[in-house]
Amino acid sequence: MSHALSDAPASSGALASVMTLEQFILDRRDRFPQSTRAFARLLRDVSVAAKIINHNIRRAGILDVMGKTGTVNVQDEKQKKLDEIADRELERALRRGGECCLIGSEEQPETVSLSPHGNFQERFAVFFDPLDGSSNTDVNASVGTIFSVYTLPEDIDEEDSLDVTLRPGAEQVAAGYVAYGSSTMFVFTTGNGVNGFTLDPGIGEFLLTHPDLQIPQERAMYSINEADIEDFSPKLRAFLQWLKTKDPDTGARIRARYIGSFVSDFHRNLLTGGLYMYPARTNYPNGKLRLMYEANPMAFLVEQAGGRASTGHQRVLDLQPEGVHQRTPLFIGSAPLVEAAEAYLQDREEEVPRVA
To answer: What is the pTM of this model?
Structure first.
């Protein structure tokens, strides 16, 4: 790896040679079809906002940022104080950077133009969930930020900008997430593989620690809120029973792990192999996760890592969005497990081997 920050001997357990996020983007700019200085600055802006959000989360037990704001967001969810802080910091960073012309957030009812008078000098639109799993913050559990980047074509005006950006996830030019846990990781793709960067709080930089991530394909873990099992379809219940079946040769079975933060569950499964599910339910017939800023970015990323993402009946990245806050069912993770879920949901369970 090039661009070592120091030639001094590494301390015990430290990386001998490291590359910062900005260095990585510059070093590989020839691999990014949309790579411009503005694009590099855009990713930098998102990373700066992530550092500020991380700072607030780390001090959540000290500062008055716990609990609810007393307001309800557009999702009809009680807004947490850290939701509001994360949303504000992302908008502020993108507005100040000047590379983004339009944003869409889980916490805001409509998209927001960042270009005064519709003067779109830059062509990037960013959609984000500023703080996924924010209900976990009050109990010191892990949370995350999810983001998705599109480019706008030339010769459009402000009135048409939303319609233009409501495009299938396959047309994203970048997507990623930040996981705030025992360490803070920035994981992203530009359509050329997936790379993970860990925040070094000592120098305030994201350093490349997980290059060229690939999701393992072995049976490992599944993540779903099984407290809702009475609201699941009979087909999904049958699939869950298949997941619980022991390997007759080894006695091994897939283990259930559910944190309740999409980013956290997805991040674990990306590293270890597994399947995350948020299906359609009787009270959420279209699922609960939002397509534009939750399902699409994670689907784009997992496919780049060798995995799959499906509604159970269709590839997520092929869906045509109809609104910023559109919801979708989601089955995402290791390809064999996603394919098995699709088989059960489509009455093709005889195609699934007893042991995956």
So the answer is: 0.88
